[in-house]
Amino acid sequence: MKGFVFDLDGVLADTAKYHYIAWKRLADEIGIQIDEAFNEQLKGISRQESLERILEYGNKAAFFSKQETAAMAEKKNQQYVELLDELSPEDALPGVREFLASAQQYNIPCTVASASKSAPFILDKLGIREYFAGIVDPADLTKGKPDPEIFIKAAQLMKLKPNEAIGFEDAQAGIDGIKGCGMYAIGLGTSEQLIGADRVIRDLSEVTVEELICL
Ligand code: G16
Ligand code: MG
After folding, report:
1. For labelling, which of 57, 98, 174, 183 has a CA lying 20 to 30 Å from the CA of 155?
2. Domain residues for 167?
3. Of 13, 32, 12, which Cα lies nearest the Cα of 24?
4. Cβ atoms < 10 Å from Cβ of 209
5. Are residues 36 and 138 in the same domain?
C-alpha cells in the first residue's frame, strides 16, 4: 500500500455534532422534528442532499422552491461554520496526529476525501493540513458518496491507482464508495454499522502505518 485516503467528519474530527446542531435548528424552524438516529443517514452526504432528505422526511419537499432550499442550505452552513470556530488542535480524534506524522516519516502520501466544502478550513483549525498532499474539492464531483468518484480522485492526487491505497471512513456511504473502486476499506465504528469494510477499528490509535503499508 502506497497511500492513505481520509474521510474527515468522523475520522479526523467529530464535526457530525456541529452538523447536527445546525440542521436541527433549521429543521425546527420549518417544523420538522429530527433526532440523532435520523442524523446518522446524513453522514458523508452532501449539504444539498442532506437538506433534501430532511424535507422528504418531514413530507415538506414539495413546499419549497429551488431558491428557497438554496437559501436554507446556506443558512445551515453559516450556523455550522460559526460552530466550527470552537475547533482547536485538541479536537483531532484519537491517534490522528500520530498516524499522520508517522506516514510523513515513511514518505507515504495522505489525501482527504470529504464531502465537506469546509474541509480545508477544518484541517487548518485542527493544525493538520500540512500532512496532506491534497484535498479533493467536492465542487469537482459529478456524484457524491456512495459513488466511488471522490476516492478515485483522492488516489489520483497521489498518482496512485485506487487498489494501491487504503481508505478510512466512518459512514456506510463512504465504505460503499471505497469498495466501489477496489480500494482497501478501513471502517471507523462497529462492523454492524459498516457493512463491507475490510477491517473495522474504533479510531486511528488502533493501527500503525508500518503494519498497513505491508498489506
Ligand atoms: C461531511 C458530513 C456530512 C455533510 C458533508 C458536507 O462529510 O459527514 O454530514 O453534509 O460533509 O459538508 P458541508 O456542508 O460542510 O459542505 P464527510 O465526507 O467529511 O464525512
Ligand atoms: Mg464521515
Report:
1. 98
2. 3-14+88-213
3. 32
4. 20
5. no
- Counting the structural domains of the chain, the total is 2
For ligand 1, say whether the CB of 44 is within 6 Å of any of its atoms: yes
CATH of the domain at 31: 1.10.150.240
DSSP, res 32: -
Question: pTM value?
Answer: 0.93
| pLDDT values of the chain reduced to their tens digit, one per residue, 215 residues | 999 999 999 999 999 999 999 999 999 999 999 999 999 899 989 999 999 999 999 999 999 999 999 999 999 999 999 999 999 999 999 999 999 999 999 999 999 999 999 999 999 999 999 999 999 999 999 999 999 999 999 999 999 999 999 999 999 999 999 999 999 999 999 988 899 999 999 999 999 999 999 98
Strand partners, 186: 168, 199
176 classed as catalytic: no
Residues that place a CB less than 5 A from ion ligand 2: 7, 9-10, 44, 170-171
Residue 179 and residue 118 share a domain: yes
* Domain end (from 52, 84, 116): 84
